[in-house]
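Hi P.,

Sorry for the delay on this. The queue was packed all week, but I finally got your sequence through. Input first:
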Amino acid sequence: MPPARRAYSRRNVRGRGYAQRGYRSNGELYFQLKRNYAHFSRQMEVNENESISELIRMMFWSIEGEDPGQLPEGLNFAFVLRRQLLSPSDDMVKTLFDGGETVS
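Then the structure:
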């Protein structure tokens, strides 16, 4: 069986709003991951054909990889998009995101 090829999207779209921080480029989806405990956000990128479960795992690793002194004790992780909790699933990221969102 040949190795699976990475599928690229032909859509290249800049995000919405003032700063236009979220966008798509060659199958990669860029968005803001907001840290509510620290009042700032950082840009994340993910392939739009990844599963929601993999996206949640990547966001968790991103926050865990920060300076340990900055994370509050007993921090609980809950990723929210459009006021709804993201739950792990096998759906593709492109079914939920269009490239201009902020995940809290």
